[in-house]
TrEMBL record:
Keywords: ATP-binding, Biotin, Ligase, Nucleotide-binding. Residues 1-186 form the BPL/LPL catalytic domain. GO terms for cellular component: cytoplasm. It catalyses: biotin + L-lysyl-[protein] + ATP = N(6)-biotinyl-L-lysyl-[protein] + AMP + diphosphate + H(+). Its EC number is 6.3.4.15. It comes from Pararhodospirillum photometricum DSM 122. It is an enzyme of class 6 (ligase). The lineage of its organism: Bacteria, Pseudomonadati, Pseudomonadota, Alphaproteobacteria, Rhodospirillales. This is biotin--[biotin carboxyl-carrier protein] ligase. It comes from the Bacteria.
Length: 253
């Protein structure tokens, strides 16, 4: 129902009006020993929202900002693949609330609707004195407003698409789908996650540009994901390159 958050069994919501970053709050809880798998930190506003690659994440009231504390019993390198399941969870939850949005996945973990970035995620790890590391999976979704992004990939809010989405409904939907993909990944591994992600992905089989840094761009055909979640890029000279971090752009054809 509107106005209420429903979480999977055993998960717990910690709601704030304003924090610096829900990822930072989740990390602090882990460090204090006050977080468990399934702790969800939600804030209506962030004063220091963080994006990938050291960027700032535009965080005024009206959009969704939340972070999940997870602790899958796998090595760090494998945990990163879960972010593809999380991207699927966001896309599926948005689609359920607004089918015309047609949410697509953009490598590595963005959600794009009608050519604009609607959601992004930031996965961070916190190592433990013993046992597997903790994961903090922060997800931001532009519902009311999107930033002006200049030369970067354009951003878009769900309201720009004529989709008024409730914060509580979306949070509940993402959590439910995330629990589904988490269970699927634990049971069947990365293969089903990768297959579902590729089905929703933008640009597979097409030319893409991957910006690796301010002065380094690779061009090629986006062939898919490898076992680790790296982007597989076939270059013109026949070389196949695996890219683990960068920003993807789709050149006009
Ligand atoms: C990106 O696309 O660059 C990732 C954006 C991640 C934003 C979310 S909002 C909730 C959580 N808290 C943060 O400070 N960042 C993430």
């Amino acid at each position: 129902t509107a106005g209420a958050v429903t979480l999977p069994m055993g998960w717990r919501l910690i709601a704030h009006d304003a924090v610096d970053s829900t990822n930072a709050v989740a990390r602090a809880l882990i460090t204090k020993g006050a977080a468990e798998e399934g702790t969800v930190v939600w804030a209506r506003e962030q004063t220091g929202g963080r994006g990938r690659q050291g960027r700032v994440w535009h965080s005024p009231p009206g959009n969704l900002y939340h972070s999940y504390v997870l602790r899958p019993d796998v090595p760090l390198a494998e945990a990163a693949r879960l972010s593809f399941g999380a991207a699927l969870a966001v896309a599926e939850a948005l689609e359920a609330l607004c089918p015309i949005a047609d949410p697509r996945c953009k490598w590595p973990n963005d959600i794009v609707c009608h050519g604009g970035k609607v959601a992004g995620m930031l996965m961070e790890t916190v190592s433990a004195a013993s046992g597997p590391p903790w994961l903090v999976l922060g997800i931001g979704v532009n519902l009311k407003t999107a930033p002006i992004t200049g030369a970067l990939f354009p951003a878009l809010a769900m309201e720009d698409l004529g989709c008024p989405v409730g914060l509580e409904d979306l949070l509940s939907g993402i959590a439910q789908r995330l629990a589904y993909w988490l269970a699927k990944w634990r049971q069947d591994g990365f293969a089903p996650v990768r297959a579902a992600w590729l089905e929703r992905a933008l640009g597979v089989g097409k030319p893409v540009e991957v910006r690796l840094g301010p002065h380094r761009t690779q061009r090629g055909i986006f062939q898919g994901l490898d076992e680790a979640g790296c982007l597989v890029l076939a270059e013109e000279d026949g070389m196949v390159r695996l890219i683990s971090a960068g920003d993807v752009f789709f050149p006009p054809q």
